[in-house]
Design goal:
Elements lengths: L13 E5 L5 H13 L6 H5 L6 E3 L2 E5 L16 E4 L13 E6 L2 H8 L10 H24 L6 E5 H6 L1 H12 L7 H10 L14 H14 L1 H7 L8
Parallel strand pairs: 1-4, 1-5, 3-4, 5-6
Antiparallel strand pairs: 2-3
């Protein structure tokens, strides 16, 4: 059992909402290394220890579905909870600050299909999966990002995190912990200790050449959402 009085939990109450495969774990690991000041913080080992929360300096972390299924988490030490969806919106909870993390859904679709290099699933089934994922993404993005804009929400594109990790994390940490100065030197070390990059290329997808034109058409269907949120479009090869 944690000795809650030991921790200096002064951060704002944060809820991280992200669509699956949008970089949640990578982002959280950077934050845990920053607030714990431990560049080797064992995130993957500790997050799988069900029933526990992760303490990193001022940050008390709960991952919904691993530690608990309660929103908000009932542990008094938790001030940062991560999840993919929630029935509550921030304008119903003025005491909670939200981070909304999203990504171009084309990469999400391929990642959810694990880039299927063995070609087990048929082409037609892939198209059905892709259309289903795209519809779910559109519903999620309108709920959390496009209809948002409240002062209690900080929106973040995964592509910006990959391309400009220092600026992205700097402003994010300022949103999370607005009362304290940011240790920029330590933040740079955190970024250098992480593998912040795109893990797969589009051509890694087993059926890329077969489905490229159909995927382009699917991206065209969400062009307005990408433009509204300034999410980069795919650079098709």
């Amino acid at each position: 059992m944690w000795n809650y009085n030991y921790f200096n939990l002064l951060m704002n109450n944060i809820r991280l909402i992200s669509y699956p495969k949008s970089g949640q774990h990578l982002l959280v690991q950077c934050l845990l290394r920053y607030f714990s000041r431990d560049l080797n913080y064992p995130f993957e080992n500790r997050r799988k220890d069900e029933g526990s929360i992760l303490i990193a300096g001022q940050m008390g972390y709960c991952e919904k579905g691993l530690h608990c299924n309660e929103v908000p988490c009932r542990e008094p030490a938790v001030n940062f909870q991560a999840m993919h969806d929630c029935h509550k919106l921030w304008y119903n909870e003025p005491s909670v600050n939200h981070i909304i993390l999203y990504r171009n859904p084309i990469y999400i679709m391929l990642s959810l299909c694990n880039y299927e290099k063995n070609g087990i699933v048929s082409l037609n089934n892939y198209l059905r999966y892709f259309i289903g994922y795209l519809n779910e993404w559109k519903e999620w993005i309108h709920k959390w990002a496009i209809k948002g804009g409240d002062v209690n929400a900080h929106q973040l594109a995964y592509e910006d995190f990959l391309n400009e990790p220092l600026d992205t994390l700097y402003f994010l940490i300022k949103f999370i912990d607005c009362d304290n100065d940011i240790d920029r030197e330590h933040l740079i070390k955190v970024i250098q200790s992480m593998d912040i990059c795109q893990k797969h290329k589009l051509i890694d997808f087993h059926y890329y050449e077969h489905l490229k034109e159909q995927m382009k058409q699917l991206e065209d269907l969400i062009a307005s959402e990408l433009e509204t949120l300034n999410i980069p479009k795919v650079e098709w090869i």
